[in-house]
Amino acid sequence: MFAFAIKKAFFDFWDNLISVALYNIGFIALLALFAFLQEGVGGIAAGLEILVAIVGIVAAFGYAGAVSLAMRDIADYNAPTFREFLGYLRQAFPASAALAVIFIFQFLVLFTGIPVYAGMQNAIGFGAIAILFWASIVWWLAAQYYFPVRARLNTGIRAILKKSFLLFFDNGAFSVGLAIVGLIAAGISLPLALLAPGIGGVMLWYQSACKLRLLKYDYLEENPDADRRRIPWTALLLEEQERVGKRTLRGMIFPWKE
After folding, report:
1. What is the pLDDT of residues 36-74, one digit of tens each?
2. Looking at the whole model, is its pTM more than 0.90?
3. b/e sequence 5-26, b meaning 16+ C-beta within 10 Å
4. What residue segments make up the domains of the chain, in order of their start?
5. Cβ-contact 44, 26 below 8 angstroms
6. How far apart are CA 251 and CA 126, in angstroms?
7. Phi–psi pair at 257, nearest 5 degrees
């Protein structure tokens, strides 16, 4: 299932390369705007710099949430329009802003807590650091599901958080794999100036992979007595495999040789 998720996400990205690139350019422009504002207020007042940084983070998360909704459409083989994207910005902002606040709070806890506990130089301090570390890892892995859950299951912030943790704890290995591919996509984006895969490619990966994973729960709902450890992925993925088709990298680059 996981290998097919990578294949689907890749070809979804390739088939919509220009659209995804445009979303990425919008994100780059947003980051550049707040970097310019941050530079402009530099030296005027520390509080103003912090305020601009916080607003910038919330705006970036808001944009990412809207891109996630657009990537959901692409993962579902639809092409979102610019007008729809403006609507997605309004729809996604509340949940996206809440996620931004949680990440800011987590950063502050780590930034202030780790030095304090490290300075204790005893078992209690090192134990507290270990708790902070593993709690952060669990949160980061669960947070991967936040935007897909918002897009496909629920729009209430509390419900999104609850279902994100439930999905993580029920799909531990898948969650780790999800994070690894997401980090690889983000890492590839850096030398490419965030143009590709970029925020669009990363969000498309999460939407495509989570869409397939959620088929598991549709199956279990229809078959409550089924063995949760033996999901018939071959049958569940049949329709998606037909939509993606038998495609190869060679055929993608040199279609006339297929």
Report:
1. 998 888 767 778 889 999 999 999 999 999 999 999 999
2. yes
3. beebbbbbbebbeebbbebbeb
4. 2-247
5. no
6. 54
7. -90, -5
